[in-house]
Amino acid sequence: MTNSLKDIIKNKILEDGPMTVGQFMGLALGHPEYGYYMKADPLGRGGDFTTAPEVSQLFGEMIGVWVADVWIQMGRPKEFILLECGPGRGTLMADMLRATKKVEGFHGALRVHLLEMSPALKEKQAETLSAYNPQWHEVLSDVPEGCPVIVIGNEFLDALPFQQFVKVDEGEVERMIALDGDEFIFVPAEGEIFEASVERDKFVRDVCRRLKNQGGAALFVDYGHMKSAAGDTFQAVKSHEYVDVLSDIGMADLTSHVDFEALGKAGDTVVCGPVTQGAFLSALGIEMRAAMLKQKASEQQAETIEKGLHRLIVSDQMGTLFKVIGFTDGRSVNPAGF
Ligand code: SAH
Hints:
Strand content: 15-25%
Oligomer: single chain
Helix content: 25-40%
Bound molecules: S-adenosyl-L-homocysteine
Shape: globular
């Protein structure tokens, strides 16, 4: 299978010349037959990478509280769309919904919509979330527009394609992927690298347009930096190890760090943050929630809760590298955690 996708990309380069990093990523992840996300579930211990909701239920519970609070601040609309972008196994949504069961009127008002392109993960989500009757969409433009919307996405934006530029004597050129014999190489080979992502910025802009038109708020969590800066953050992960970005095509997850300064500028509504994941979760009361869960837990469960909490909020774990940014419709809501 790898060979087929490698050949497809090779032939495309032979025909059309070098391709951009974004095109390469789009094919490696999203090729309808051989793309990475078209195949089996990539998450968890037996997969390639682990995400915050897979680390601990506390993550989804906190995001659930955030969403319910936004809904209350919005005046408890009778119907609203709860849209998750790139829901993975459905774990985050399931934890959010479980944690908010007792919020009066909330479950009756929410309609679960999921933006997902992976057939394998869709299946998994259908299993996890069958009780909530979710509706799937492959593109944002297919999500209905008639009512308010609250959007969440964890490690979604990093999966969208991005561009790299290289500083050369004559100015700046886009970094391309070319062929050297049978191998893929970057051209130009040297020079300082800058990144941008037309796709991520556009996604955020489109979400913000919806917030303004429909009312609501959005929350995105991802690894990345607060301020735009030079550097190559293109990365490939397979079986929890970093691998070469140009090898293992279709078999490794490809991402880059999200530029939160750029996202903030792309969203032309009220922007909250960015703040670190550790600060966000602490402000929402994650330590208190963990302490509460531990009271009713066995010794072993208590240890698992503590480990999960540590991993989510401590600086040398996920607490600092991961950032959180929010967007609102600019009217009534003042989201918690920022
Ligand atoms: N949010 C989940 C999964 C993160 S992995 C978690 O935290 O565990 C990235 C998710 O985004 C996967 O579900 C993947 O299939 C989905 N995805 C990636 N690119 C996408 C795109 N262009 N459109 C829709 N979904 C996409």
